[in-house]
């Protein structure tokens, strides 16, 4: 496998593969255990296809009891487990391991309860993101987080990566829209965190689980917040002659106290690719394009549109169009939603990054990415959630050309280093996975990482759940519990010890 170094496979576990598969077949239906090389092939990677590895075996449990039984068996026998949703992760979070059971949760695909009175729904983790909205839209409700992969990505995967989408600026990411989860620990114990109530007392364990990338447990049920659809929504399609002018507009809109339902930006390569793909009327002479959606009562939306239009024109907008119908608004978004597959049509391969920066740094970072593009001699198309500074640079390369993947990886790493340098973070919604794992020290020191690892140890002290992800260096949990003694002196010697 190319790419980042993964933990050395346990030869003993691989040697016991036949025994492990046979044991799993006693716990699950025959068709729920996949072990032939041909059948394993579709599971060899997630959306980060640059890295791939066949798993030891794939299991598709259908009940909480089956999940618990499999995890309990793996815990007792020292077998690693990699949880997986729909496999749309772009950070390698569901990358299989040669000595690990890959647990796909896609048979958990039912909507269990819709509670309009309490404005929530209870769903299994294999339900797609868009599937939640489809289940409640007849009553005028929807589920707000809407990643571009929403037609395919699962809500369980959204929980693992804390996914966002074009409407996360106003309505929040997954963590702001999930009220509770049921999950199974590596020991097989079933726990429930949160529920239909808005807040729980004590430690925010639910907050720990959302975005934990499958390192703490396997989610088997999710309670999500559903919202009433806004009275009206209209969108502006605004072209600029530079990305810097578009970025300045974004900053000024937010500074004016306007919180759009969505505010997305695309640069020229992305505009051309998207328009060629969906043909919705994007301005082909623009260097940058903003899509700004305002929602709420009609009178409020009318006023906000005027304010955003004034800001855009003051920054030199070259084209400006306001949607006149809901169909036209959806057409504006169609290109943005299809930007990733659209770019895939113009390049043999692309590497999708995910970093988040302060909005005021947007012009500086865009300029920096142009310089990096020239340095690495690779094109880059930019598509991102401009309102909250979540960048999605798409680095174009050809894996068939020797050295291009490595250049793309280095280009991406430098983009993320730039994000951290200007006060941003390594990820906004794609997660760390293996893609950003070795960049974690750019943002966290050893003490920070050790504290994060202690949380992992509290849930999974054998480090059997999704190992090799997120943390650049694995420590045994016992090591993290040791006290550092320097020159025979313990720190804070005056404090009582228990």
TrEMBL record:
<dbReference type="InterPro" id="IPR016166">
    <property type="entry name" value="FAD-bd_PCMH"/>
</dbReference>
<keyword id="KW-0560">Oxidoreductase</keyword>
<dbReference type="InterPro" id="IPR036318">
    <property type="entry name" value="FAD-bd_PCMH-like_sf"/>
</dbReference>
<keyword id="KW-0285">Flavoprotein</keyword>
<feature type="domain" description="FAD-binding PCMH-type">
    <location>
        <begin position="51"/>
        <end position="229"/>
    </location>
</feature>
<dbReference type="InterPro" id="IPR006094">
    <property type="entry name" value="Oxid_FAD_bind_N"/>
</dbReference>
<dbReference type="InterPro" id="IPR016169">
    <property type="entry name" value="FAD-bd_PCMH_sub2"/>
</dbReference>
<keyword id="KW-0274">FAD</keyword>
<dbReference type="InterPro" id="IPR016164">
    <property type="entry name" value="FAD-linked_Oxase-like_C"/>
</dbReference>
<dbReference type="Pfam" id="PF01565">
    <property type="entry name" value="FAD_binding_4"/>
</dbReference>
<dbReference type="InterPro" id="IPR004113">
    <property type="entry name" value="FAD-bd_oxidored_4_C"/>
</dbReference>
<dbReference type="InterPro" id="IPR016171">
    <property type="entry name" value="Vanillyl_alc_oxidase_C-sub2"/>
</dbReference>
<dbReference type="InterPro" id="IPR051914">
    <property type="entry name" value="FAD-linked_OxidoTrans_Type4"/>
</dbReference>
<dbReference type="Pfam" id="PF02913">
    <property type="entry name" value="FAD-oxidase_C"/>
</dbReference>
<dbReference type="GO" id="GO:0016491">
    <property type="term" value="F:oxidoreductase activity"/>
</dbReference>
<dbReference type="GO" id="GO:0071949">
    <property type="term" value="F:FAD binding"/>
</dbReference>
<protein>
    <submittedName>
        <fullName>Putative FAD-linked oxidoreductase</fullName>
        <ecNumber>1.-.-.-</ecNumber>
    </submittedName>
</protein>
């Amino acid at each position: 496998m190319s790419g980042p170094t993964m933990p050395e496979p346990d030869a003993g576990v691989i040697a016991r593969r036949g025994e492990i598969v046979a044991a799993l077949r006693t716990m699950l239906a025959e068709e729920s255990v996949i072990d032939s090389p041909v059948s394993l092939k579709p599971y060899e990677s997630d959306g980060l296809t640059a890295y791939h590895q066949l798993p030891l075996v794939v299991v598709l449990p259908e009940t909480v009891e089956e999940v618990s039984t499999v995890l309990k068996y793996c815990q007792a026998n020292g077998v690693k487990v990699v949880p997986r949703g729909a496999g749309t992760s772009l950070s390698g979070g569901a990358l299989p391991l040669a000595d690990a059971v890959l647990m796909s949760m896609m048979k958990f695909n039912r909507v269990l309860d819709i509670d309009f009175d309490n404005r929530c729904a209870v769903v299994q983790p294999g339900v797609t993101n868009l599937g939640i909205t489809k289940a409640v839209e007849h009553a005028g409700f929807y589920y707000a987080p809407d990643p571009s992969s929403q037609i395919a990505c699962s809500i369980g995967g959204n929980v693992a990566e804390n996914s966002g989408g074009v409407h996360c600026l106003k309505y929040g990411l997954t963590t702001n829209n999930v009220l509770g989860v049921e999950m199974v620990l590596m020991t097989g114990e079933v726990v429930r965190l949160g529920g239909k109530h808005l807040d729980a007392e004590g430690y925010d364990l639910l907050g720990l689980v959302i975005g934990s990338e499958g390192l703490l447990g396997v989610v088997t049920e999710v309670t999500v917040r559903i919202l009433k659809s806004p009275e009206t929504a209209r969108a502006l399609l605004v072209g600029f002659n530079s990305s810097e002018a578009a970025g300045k507009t974004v900053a000024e809109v937010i500074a004016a106290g306007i919180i759009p339902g969505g505010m997305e930006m695309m640069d020229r390569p992305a505009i051309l690719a998207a328009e060629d793909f969906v043909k919705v009327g994007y301005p082909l002479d623009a260097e940058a394009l903003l899509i700004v959606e305002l929602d709420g009562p009609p009178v409020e939306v009318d006023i906000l549109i005027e304010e955003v239009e004034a800001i855009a024109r003051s920054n030199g907008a070259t084209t400006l169009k306001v949607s006149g119908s809901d169909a036209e608004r959806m057409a504006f978004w169609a290109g943005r939603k299809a930007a990733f597959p659209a770019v895939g049509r113009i390049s043999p391969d692309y590497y999708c990054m995910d970093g988040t920066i302060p909005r005021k740094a947007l012009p500086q970072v865009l300029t920096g990415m142009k310089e990096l593009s020239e340095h690495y001699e690779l094109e880059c198309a930019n598509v991102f959630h401009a309102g909250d500074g979540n960048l999605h640079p798409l680095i174009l390369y050809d894996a068939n050309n020797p050295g291009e993947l490595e250049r793309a990886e280095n280009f991406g790493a430098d983009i993320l280093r730039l994000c951290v340098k200007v006060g941003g973070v390594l990820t906004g919604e794609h997660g760390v996975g293996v893609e950003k794992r070795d960049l974690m020290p750019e943002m966290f020191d050893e003490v920070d990482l050790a504290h994060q690892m202690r949380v992992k140890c509290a849930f999974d002290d054998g480090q059997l759940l999704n190992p090799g992800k997120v943390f650049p260096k694995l420590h045994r949990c016992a090591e993290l519990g040791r006290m550092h003694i320097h020159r025979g002196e313990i720190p804070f010697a005056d404090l009582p010890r228990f």
